[in-house]
# Entry
Amino acid sequence: MAFEGLAERLQATFDKMKGRGKVSEADVKEMMREVRLALLEADVNFKVVKKFVNDVKERAVGQEVMKSLTPGQQVIKVVNEELTALMGGEQSKIATAQKAPTVVMLAGLQGAGKTTTVAKVANHLRKHNNRKPLLAAADVYRPAAIDQLETLGKQLNMPVFSLGDQASPVDIAKGAIEQAKEEHCDYVLIDTAGRLHIDENLMGELQDVKEAVQPEEILLVVDAMTGQDAVNVAESFNDQLGITGAVLTKLDGDTRGGAALSVRQVTGVPIKFAGVGEKIDELDEFHPERMASRILGMGDMLSLIEKAQTNVDDERAKELEKKMRSAEMTFDDFLEQLEQVRNMGPLDDLLQMMPGANKKAMKNIQVDESQIGRVEAIVRSMTKYEKENPSVMNASRKRRIAKGSGTTIQDVNRLLKQFEDMKKMMKQMTSGQKGKKKGKGGF
Ligand code: GDP
# Structure
């Protein structure tokens, strides 16, 4: 999970501020020293860190800070806003040309995830924007890239334009646009060739394609796991080719997360998408504000709810949200939630998105996904009365349930404990949120 280390460190630093009545310049200095180290440890580019820390300091010790909120809240607010600004402020969507088809060129080093991302973006455009994309196989350099794109196209049931690996990328790109016009496709996504390192041939080839087809967007695909290298790559591509946006891939594997915080700042172009897994639907739109909240441990309720909405039907998603907020859960709800959650992706990721989520609180409620079947069996062996009133559970009931579900009393006990912990956490989360709204509580 990206940003885990950074989020933990920042939270620990802010915890120190709790209970202080007033924040002095020295306090802010001390906090920002920690923030600086945390960011550097998260592999954020040092120039970016320096600017960030200075910006926050300037605002935090200025007049803005000494008003209504508590000192911790004030500094968090500033850090949150500055983090959001650092990652681009507003969310930036993929562009649409005035005249169809919109041509989007994807560039990047070999292995960054370009070909995969072409398919992911195409899928996203169709699923969320109702578009009809055509994929162009212009990576004539990496063996098997063309086959890979053709396979992905088949999987998505989308047209792929290819002229084999002997044709020039310019001809392929032009041909693809012609075919898109004939077939009334409104987006052409061009998979271009990468190299292991930046070299003149690569840049020359990309410039030729750019010139020939005048794309609306040139998206640079960078591997977030490469940390500072990703930032250097982004800088060079931007200088030599000119890019309009970036896609960060493998954010699922990047525990330091520094690249996301630096790429935008160093190149000035927005991050448009984040790749969060190998599968075709594992691509998220990049929301700076939500990402900043996540880094600061404020959770990401919006993303969570959005996820719920695309994967389960609306009614059930609303129900789920309501139940979570009210913390009135029965075992039937619990079961239903487990089923919905199972459709949404790995549990750990989802738990991280909840407000108030931090590692310590999560320890007792982590549900091993392979155990979900067992949990279901236990719940299904309960009577209606037991499901609605878990407190009546005594030894003989537990024995009966264990027997009925083919599990052990320990399994039943563990589930009861998890259920209670989850309820407790939801209660804390919701009371914390109410507190925040009224401007009380929190820090
Ligand atoms: P290309 O050379 O840039 O076209 O790279 P590919 O599209 O072939 O991707 C290289 C590898 O990275 C493949 O194994 C992909 O499955 C993997 N990959 C791409 N995006 C992601 C991502 O967001 N997360 C993870 N975990 N793997 C990814």
Summary: The longest helix spans residues 409-437.
